[in-house]
Amino acid sequence: MSVFVLERHDVVGAGRGALLEMLRDRWGPHLEERFGLTQVGLWATVGSTGRWPEAWSLTGAPSREAFAEAMDGMYPMEARATYAYEMWRHSLRVRTGGASHVVTVVAGDPAGAQDHPACLLDVTRVRPGRRADFHAAVGETLAPLNATRDIRLLASFDDVLVPTHAFTLWALPDWDRQQMPFTAADGPEAAGWFARLDELVEDSYGFLLAPAPKTRLGT
Amino acid sequence: MGDGQIFTLDYVDVVRGREADYLASSHSLVGAHGHSLLADTGVLQLQATEVAGEWPCVVNVWERSWDTWIATVAGRFTDAGRNTAIESWWQANTDVRTGGLDLVLTGSPGTDSLTVAAPAAAHCDVFVVDTVHVAPGEVERYLATADDVLAAETAATGGVLVGAYRTLWRPNVAVTIVGLTTNAAVDVVVGGVSGGAWARYRADVVRDADCRVMLPARSNPGRTTRS
Hints:
heterodimer; A: alpha+beta; B: alpha+beta; eight-stranded antiparallel barrel; 7 helices; 9 strands; globular
């Protein structure tokens, strides 16, 4: 996979379980079969860590060319992808809106992201021209720090269309071993990371994502 | 560009699934009411995809003279000179929109009137509406570079630079709109997959961006089909 759509889905009321079920069981397989796109991740936002009710998906294409071809074939849906359009239309009863980002992998591989009990998604706005430096700092400083807690860097992404936006996806080992996030007071390595963050970043926020269970999620 | 021409860029939060209804309804305003509000208007209408940017959303770009716009705004908030037809339309369409954000723009020296630019982009199937934040002192160079480099690189893909705009009262905000023939061209022109000069320059100066991949409305000038 080389290019992905990372999408936030805003949910109507208690409809998140139905939306996740539809995206996993019908939308994802259809994207694979009809457009050659792969649903790499599908999560519910852990409500106490971010916006709610909300879901996220990560859908990949094998190449930029394949992605562009898929989008050309999909839009406008009502004319070119009528079955997808029908599913999209039915999804409207459980969705209020959302936002999408076309992203490419800078480091790591998000394949298998679904298999972890939870993930952490960091959404970062870097200072102009410093995105490569930010990714390097994540790899050199933050990833080793997080590894001491078995938090593994799955993948770092660049937003293809917004040169100051970056995303970092981390896998958490399990819920039982979760500890408080690092602060600058946690030692010289952590302090070094926060100093780099201040140098490279305008804004950053993270939140936890959990894969949908096999039975319909009730929250 | 005509002297004193301005553009308004409306990001409209539409009700999901009602995009086409809103596009048609707002397009019905063009020259329909015999009042000065939209009598001299050029228009370009676009609809959000779930490829890049917020959804659901419709973008309307209107063009009019500064004098018309000022008169419209002044009339809207007084008892005299009110456009009751527009007010009726506004009241009647609350079921298809929930809100939005409007920006008032002026075009770069290379930006054509929408009466020229919109028909010139009628063959385009994909549009990129790119609102960026740069250093306040960078806007003029950003627009000049768009007129020169972005226009050439877009044309090389078969697309069209619809316009490059500064934003009134927001000295660090600039907007570009390009029409493209394929999604691959989005990546080439804006995403910089080919290492184009525009993408490199943009990556150096942009502090934040709201970059949306959108579809043209059926009602756009010169456009007869979207299939």
